[in-house]
Amino acid sequence: MTTIAVVSGGLGVPSSTRLLADRLASATADALGEVDLEVIELRPLAHSLADHLLTGFPTGELATAIETIREADGLIVVTPVFSASYSGLFKSFVDVLEPGLLDGKPVLIAATAGTSRHSLVLDHALRPLFSYLHAVVVPTGVFAASEDFGDISSGQLAERIQRAAGELAALVGKVDPTARRRRTVEDEFADPTPFAELLRNASDPGTAAPPTR
Predict the structure, then answer these.
(1) Distance between CA atoms of 108 and 130, rounded to whole angstroms?
(2) Which of 41, 112, 199, 210 has a CA that sits 20 to 30 A from residue 151's CA?
(3) Structural domain that includes position 207
(4) Residue 169 in contact with residue 138, Cβ under 8 Å?
(5) pLDDT digits (tens, 9 = 90+) for 97-135
């Protein structure tokens, strides 16, 4: 079954960030059909994140959350905006993900804030962050200001949610999970060419690689 991990970086209870995350998850489930949604709330992981940043080892629920990200076929990530960027809690979670964990993984980015003046956070902060991590970010990001939640079930926000969810569903259906993992040093040495063969190829002009410019 297809698995979508939903990361909510909201700090309040209840949280507008979680509300948007739930709407995006529901729309994605409708687009995909049968799907397993795994919600990761970052607020309860704050202490574990601080410990991991100091020790380098995830424990308990944080370790489970990281494994959920690893196994997911796609991600929905939603953060509140602080100082014109993603929250520190959200960035801390991203910082503890090991290199290569998001390679080729489809990601839907979203953010919430008190005013629409922060809507550019999607393109100047979130999209570059996940592109750097080699994730495949869907074209449509979803931003919701406080006034948008009055028509979250209809209107322009609802349209953006449906469009972004459809894009994520389409990407999840096209990506081959076996092609996502980044090659490691262990991969390079898994099937080495024997040294004798390397010497033979080097001494035989007929097998040498042509010169390049």
Answers:
(1) 10
(2) 41
(3) 183-213
(4) no
(5) 999 999 999 999 999 998 888 888 999 999 999 999 999
